[in-house]
């Protein structure tokens, strides 16, 4: 069953979202309580003009977020002519209404696959109890945890997780989660604690050390929270988080978020999209700082390299007639490692939901609903096969201990989830362990080693589904 989108139709819009199959997103102009609109502004130079605040004020706006290192600012205004006034400035490259990502959780259905209820609840007082045998995904990319005997990473190597935050007190994460260094970019919040669950699941995949194990159980994970419990994330928050993580000297960033982005050839009066400029600059800034940026490919089952496929998808699914070139961000930005999702039961197929195409660099296990559901879905993507979903084929990782169990099981503190959101952190963890062993490696060298040592799934050599193959940290460490 495809995820649903609550779509607000705009002339030119940016659709982004957490790239897990349990989440979807729609972007709409951000409206304040006073009916003010938020705007994203990209100045021509990556150093802001000295009078940028005055320019914004003279146009009828007030500054909200400043990403000084890359010349990006968000501002609010109730003046309907604000954009026209500001765009008249020779210092402005692009400006547009700022767009916001919303989470839309996958809800259980009466005809859904049954939740998993036969796994013992965690006994935090029993150090011998664990769920390691259920971690088919981590076991596969670590060669049954054999890579841990060579390297578990180290606490000096930091993975920044741009997501919903972390449960810093989770028994499997508390040793490795850097609460002090974590930050929130969500207005009205004072900390980076996870109120949704997605970020904690991602973090466990990277660095859990307990009843479940991550790729590098000695790595440090740090939260850069851009999503609240139910609210959205503005583009400026995401951009600011990436630049901040780079300035904090993290080694790897995981961005399990992504979505469709389309641009007309003459987008706006100046021909540029402020959102695309912001994303591109932020990624390049991070890479130049030595940060390896890992991103999810997205869960639309589309060929990212086929413009026709993308146009047809939006037309059929949402009634949007998109003109001009189209791309997915951050999956199709230069400088990132883009990850598709492999499954437990096949080394020939990626997950039914996974995007694919020439932007794919590598694959990693993200899970799915099992071979029966896969066969039915591929025969008829619009069919209703909820009762055929087998949640055991999803990936098990940490879940906030203070949130209700995720609907795929009754487990407290753990959840079975699937999506390219679950695939990307495998690669982020692999990148971080490589960086721990080779601290002088540049992002390009980290990426090259991941590709070189991948297991060749699918067709021989590079292909559009798995890229270089399925990532494997044991192979990387023994190369």
Could you characterize the architecture of this molecule?
By secondary structure, the protein is α/β, with parallel strands linked by helices. The protein has two domains: 67 residues, Peptidase S8 propeptide/proteinase inhibitor I9 (Alpha-Beta Plaits), CATH 3.30.70.80; 346 residues, Rossmann fold (3-Layer(aba) Sandwich), CATH 3.40.50.200. Helix content is 23%, strand content 18%. It has eleven helices and 19 strands. The strands form five sheets. A seven-stranded parallel beta sheet has the order 9-10-8-12-14-16-17, with helices on both faces. α4 packs parallel to α9, α5 runs parallel beside α6 and α9 crosses α10. The protein is globular. The N terminus is likely disordered.
Task: Describe, in short, the structure shown.
The active site is at residues 163, 198, 421. With 479 residues, this protein is of the alpha/beta class.
Helix content class: 10-25%
What CATH architecture of the largest domain do you see? 3-Layer(aba) Sandwich
Helical/strand content category: alpha/beta
Tell me, what is the CATH class of the largest domain?
Alpha Beta
How do the SSEs run, as a string of H and E? EEEHEEHEEHEEHEEHEEHEHEEEHEEHHH
Oligomer classification: single chain
Placed side by side, the strands forming the largest sheet appear as 9-10-8-12-14-16-17
Radius of gyration from CA coordinates: 21 Å
Strand content: 15-25%
CATH topology of the largest domain: Rossmann fold
Number of helices: 11
* Low-confidence regions: 1-17, 19-33, 262-270
Most strands sheet: 7 strands, parallel
What's the total number of strands? 19
Distance between the termini: 41 Å
Q: Superfamily at the CATH H level of the largest domain?
A: Peptidase S8/S53 domain
Mean pLDDT: 88
Apparent shape: globular
Number of domains: 2
């Amino acid at each position: 069953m495809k995820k649903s989108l609550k779509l607000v139709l705009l002339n030119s819009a940016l659709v982004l979202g957490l790239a897990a199959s349990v989440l979807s997103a729609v972007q709409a102009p951000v409206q304040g309580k006073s009916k003010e609109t938020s705007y994203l502004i990209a100045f021509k130079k990556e150093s802001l003009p000295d009078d940028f605040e005055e320019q914004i004020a003279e146009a009828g706006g007030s500054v909200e977020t400043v990403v000084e290192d890359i010349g990006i600012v968000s501002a609010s205004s109730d003046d309907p002519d604000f954009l026209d006034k500001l765009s008249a400035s020779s210092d402005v490259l692009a400006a547009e209404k700022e767009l916001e990502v919303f989470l839309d959780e996958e809800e259980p259905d009466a005809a859904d696959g049954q939740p998993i209820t036969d796994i013992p609840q965690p006994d935090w007082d029993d150090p011998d109890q664990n769920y390691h045998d259920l971690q088919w995904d981590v076991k596969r990319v670590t060669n049954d945890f054999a890579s841990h005997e060579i390297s578990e990473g180290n606490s000096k190597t930091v993975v920044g997780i741009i997501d919903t935050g972390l449960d810093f007190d989770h028994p499997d994460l508390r040793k490795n989660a850097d609460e002090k260094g974590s930050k929130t970019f969500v207005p009205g919040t004072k900390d980076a604690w996870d109120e949704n669950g997605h970020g904690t699941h991602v973090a466990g995949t990277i660095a859990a050390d307990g009843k479940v194990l991550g790729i590098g159980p000695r790595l440090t994970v740090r939260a850069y929270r851009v999503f609240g419990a139910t609210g959205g994330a503005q583009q400026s928050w995401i951009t600011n988080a990436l630049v901040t993580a780079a300035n904090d000297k993290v080694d790897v960033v995981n961005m399990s978020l992504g979505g469709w982005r389309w641009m007309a050839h003459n987008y706006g009066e100046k021909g540029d999209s402020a959102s695309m400029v912001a994303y591109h600059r932020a990624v390049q800034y991070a890479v130049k700082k030595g940060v390896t940026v890992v991103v999810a490919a997205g869960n639309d089952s589309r060929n990212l390299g086929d413009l026709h496929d993308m146009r047809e998808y939006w037309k059929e699914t949402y009634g949007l007639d998109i003109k001009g070139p189209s791309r997915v961000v951050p999956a199709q930005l230069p400088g990132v490692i883009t990850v598709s999702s492999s499954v437990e039961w096949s080394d020939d197929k990626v997950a039914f939901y996974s995007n694919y195409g020439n932007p794919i660099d590598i694959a990693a296990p993200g899970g799915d609903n099992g071979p029966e559901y896969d066969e039915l879905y591929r025969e008829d993507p619009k069919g209703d096969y909820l009762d055929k979903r087998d949640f055991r084929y999803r990936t098990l990782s940490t879940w906030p201990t203070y949130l209700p169990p995720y609907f795929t099981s009754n487990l407290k503190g753990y959840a079975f989830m699937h999506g390219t959101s679950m695939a990307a952190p495998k690669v982020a963890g692999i990148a971080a362990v490589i960086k721990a062993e080779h601290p002088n490696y540049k992002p390009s060298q980290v990426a090259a080693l991941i590709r070189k040592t991948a297991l060749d799934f699918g067709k021989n050599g590079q292909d559009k589904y798995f890229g270089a193959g399925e990532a494997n940290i044991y192979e990387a460490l023994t190369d």
